[in-house]
Amino acid sequence: MSGQEFLRYPDLALRSHGGAVVHANDESFAERENLIKPGPAGFDPAAFGHKGKVYDGWETRRRRTPGHDHAIVRLGVPGIVRGVVVDTAWFTGNYPPEVSVEATGLDGHPAPADLDAAEWTVLVPRSPVAGDTANAFAVNDGHRYTHLRLTMYPDGGIARFRVHGEAVADPRLLVTGGLDLAALENGGRVASCSNEFYSSPTNVIAPGLTRSMGEGWENARRRDDGNDHVEIALAASGEVRLLEIDTSYFLFNAPGAVRVSGCDTAAADPADPGSWFTVLDRTDVRPDTRHRFVVDRPRAATRLRLDVYPDGGIARFRAHGTLSAAGHTDLWLRWINTLPEPQAVAALSGLGATADQVKSLLAARPLDTPDALPAALAARARA
């Protein structure tokens, strides 16, 4: 991916998406946690603390010895990184001249020692950056990663670190009878949106509950006869059985009504209006309310479209359901195809594949069907 097209992808590292800065070798002047805070960095020229100037970012001490400083970010939503932004906002005489970004994929909840021993892949080689600038770097790597390491040479301050990409769910964790097929953390994404004047539509599929109106999706006021909508590509094909449409914190700017439609892109073209079917008829909704609707006639879909009438804000949108057989298989194959090789070896071995089988599978990627998988693993992918 070239240029800055990757900025359309959600930030997988964002704190409100479950991200965390799990390690930094130095944070003498400003805390590492600031790197993944939502929103742009602020600055108060009069703010000084016991350690000196207060910055809304991560800042290390001035180095008097050779070396460099680094921080490790655990992605809130593991996935394929399409690009990163190293934002040095407000750092003018104390920003790092150069940075690099590496990634790794690890199972479970690795300790610092595990991260030190991990095999890291370079996503952004050592590159120059400018001060007080959102320095953007496109990434061309199709693997699913769980952690990123941001290094600055030799020291300095970085306000925000954004990691834009596509979520790839771990199917081993999807063990419930029903799951949120639209959730960002399960692989859902926004396919299109009519208007995102105030805030991103990706917010509606973010983890957790909103804490303010600013954490939802809000469009501009409509002055015509149309209505606004957001289209969600589901994690995989599935039957939605329960919808949740949350207008929390939207008091005087919630929609008057909503409607939900579905489309199975494996069998129809979403650009054809006739390929969409009704999931929820147009229904009045109330402000500041978590609405839940049982779907009377569930059927397989890969996309949902939420229409709001005529406009207004939505805090969260949930689509609880069950994967279809094809959707279950697609999730497993995508996960296997995108694992970095060291993690793939560990994960496939842990699922019972022999060393020879793992070697053959890695050589055969990308896999289109479960046929190339060992019998036990193929059965899991087809379950």
TrEMBL record:
Domain of life from the UniProt record:
Bacteria
Task: Please state what class of enzyme this protein is.
Answer: hydrolase
Q: Quote the InterPro entries the UniProt record gives.
A: Allantoicase, Allantoicase_dom, Galactose-bd-like_sf
Alphabetical keyword list:
Hydrolase, Purine metabolism
| Cross-referenced Pfam families | Allantoicase
Note the Gene3D superfamilies from the entry.
Answer: Galactose-binding domain-like
Residue span(s) of domain Allantoicase: 18-167, 187-322
Pathway assignment reads: Nitrogen metabolism; (S)-allantoin degradation; (S)-ureidoglycolate from allantoate (aminidohydrolase route): step 1/1
Reaction(s) this enzyme catalyzes, per UniProt: allantoate + H2O = (S)-ureidoglycolate + urea
This one is known as Probable allantoicase
Protein's organism: Nocardiopsis sediminis
The upper taxonomy is: Bacteria, Bacillati, Actinomycetota, Actinomycetes, Streptosporangiales
